[in-house]
Amino acid sequence: MAFETEPRNEPRLGLVVLQADETIEGDFRRIMPSDVDLYVSRVPSSVDVTPGTLAEMENHIGQSASLFPTPASFDVIGYGCTSGTSVIGIERVGDLVRSGASVKAVTEPISALLAASGHLGVTRLAFLSPYIENVSSALRSVLAENGIETPVFGSFETGEEAVVARISPASLIEAAVEIGKSTDAEAIFISCTNLRTLDIISTIEDRVGKPVLSSNQVLIWHMCQLAGVKTGKAGFGKLLSGVQ
């Protein structure tokens, strides 16, 4: 039978998700506007989180990006690992993604956090991490190199990805509120794409009176910003709602 073809002009976003991540994809599906095409690929990752296992992903990111549909040219592709970016490097992640896919812009949670912090006018963060010290310190160093101070810090000190995905929202709220009350911090950042942060951001903001940022939230926001997609969405923090 005869048929016609037509161009697909919807904004097209790609997300490279860690094999061990159980959270980020669901968060993206909940927030992304319905007129956006979101494609997801996975990158091999270890169940243990150390600088060494994070660095190993450098060998696979390009291949993971190459698994997106080849006829598609993407507006933005995001690499979904905050700590992995701190180890591999912002520019290197971008190069690896571009080696595998046709894309206009690449981002990851660190670049997204820097952009979100600039948008909100904050430079001092209360930093909450789930990870062991040598993973967290690498990320804090990268932020410092880019003008973001983390004078207040807290961590759950785990090196197991499966544990991270199961830290209770109540525990996250308690820890974030504790460090967020410090007058040394202008906002709170909860690091890691595998933490279940999306539904507690507004609760923490209400209790502390400061903006709250998380890895998934800032990555969603930044990808939409780069693609020219509006992100006005209530209930997930000031950043996504557009309120400052």
UniProtKB/TrEMBL annotation:
Keywords in alphabetical order: Isomerase
InterPro entries the record matches: Iso_Racemase_Enz_sf, MaiA/AMDase
GO molecular function, one term: maleate isomerase activity
Enzyme Commission code: 5.2.1.1
EC top class, as a word: isomerase
PANTHER family (alphabetical): BLR3294 PROTEIN
This protein's name: Maleate cis-trans isomerase
Organism: Hoeflea phototrophica (strain DSM 17068 / NCIMB 14078 / DFL-43)
Species classification: Bacteria, Pseudomonadati, Pseudomonadota, Alphaproteobacteria, Hyphomicrobiales
